[in-house]
């Protein structure tokens, strides 16, 4: 498998039926050494290297003694977006149960819940919205979404066009920087809100006790509320001047 460069410091390669045996074991060994990997419907990214597994050609062989050992490994954290879709298909088609998953879609909802003082959004965010990068760097994700809707047959072309391989590689490498964003946001909130030292180290700071109410007021001014009590995140009003941020 020859590695190709799709963005600075990111290499990717395609694993197909022509790459079995010793070569495949070498790449699997590299992935198994990682503590955190990104997984998507298209492939796996490990630090600065991405691996695209051609399941259309490999079939169940990709999971025997290789991918299944990684996906079911409790010691490797798998960062993904919308794990229900991927996990459901892997379990139904190949009997693989993905473990130790960090779902950026769930983390985004938790961040929204925290930011608004306990409100839930009326919808989940798209991957493009979650990664919060300049639109120029997200063009690959938009093209991939468009192809999935309008030209599904392109995914069955073999050998796969180089432009499509690049799009698939980029769709995976954006995920890992999102890991633990909700946790670090909560820590930052705790540090910035606790301006006064409590009388007891176990006492919850007064600022944090007031924070939920402040965030709820901000959220109601920021987002329209649906009949179900959810916030319309895609129909937000201009940002209020003061906001008890989580970051």
TrEMBL record:
InterPro entries xrefs: piRNA_biogenesis_EXD1 (IPR052144), RNaseH-like_sf (IPR012337), RNaseH_sf (IPR036397)
One Gene Ontology term, aspect cellular component: PET complex
Top-level division of the source organism's lineage: Eukaryota
Gene3D superfamilies: Ribonuclease H-like superfamily/Ribonuclease H (3.30.420.10)
GO molecular-function terms, A-Z: nucleic acid binding
Gene Ontology biological process terms from the UniProt entry: piRNA processing
Protein name in UniProt: Exonuclease 3'-5' domain containing 1
UniProt organism field: Hucho hucho
Lineage: Eukaryota, Metazoa, Chordata, Craniata, Vertebrata
């Amino acid at each position: 498998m020859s590695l190709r460069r799709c963005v600075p410091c990111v290499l990717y390669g395609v694993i197909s039926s022509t790459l079995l045996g010793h070569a495949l074991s070498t790449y699997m060994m590299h992935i198994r050494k990682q503590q955190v990997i990104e997984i998507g419907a298209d492939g796996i990214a490990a630090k600065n290297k991405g691996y695209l597994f051609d399941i259309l050609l490999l079939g169940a062989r990709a999971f025997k003694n290789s991918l299944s050992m990684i996906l079911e490994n409790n010691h490797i954290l798998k960062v993904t977006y919308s794990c229900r879709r991927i996990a459901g298909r892997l379990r139904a088609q190949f009997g693989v149960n993905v473990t130790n998953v960090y779902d950026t879609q769930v983390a985004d909802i938790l961040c929204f819940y925290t930011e608004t003082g306990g409100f839930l959004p009326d919808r989940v965010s798209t991957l493009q919205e979650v990664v919060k990068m300049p639109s120029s760097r997200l063009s690959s994700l938009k093209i991939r979404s468009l192809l999935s809707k309008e030209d599904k047959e392109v995914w069955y072309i073999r050998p796969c066009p180089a432009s499509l391989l690049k799009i698939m590689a980029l769709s995976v490498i954006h995920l890992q920087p999102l890991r633990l964003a909700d946790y670090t946001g909560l820590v930052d909130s705790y540090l910035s809100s606790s301006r006064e030292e409590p009388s007891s180290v176990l006492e919850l700071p007064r600022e944090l006790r007031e924070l939920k109410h402040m965030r709820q007021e901000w959220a109601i001014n920021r987002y329209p509320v649906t009949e179900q009590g959810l916030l319309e995140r895609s129909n937000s009003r201009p940002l209020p001047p003061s906001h008890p941020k989580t970051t």
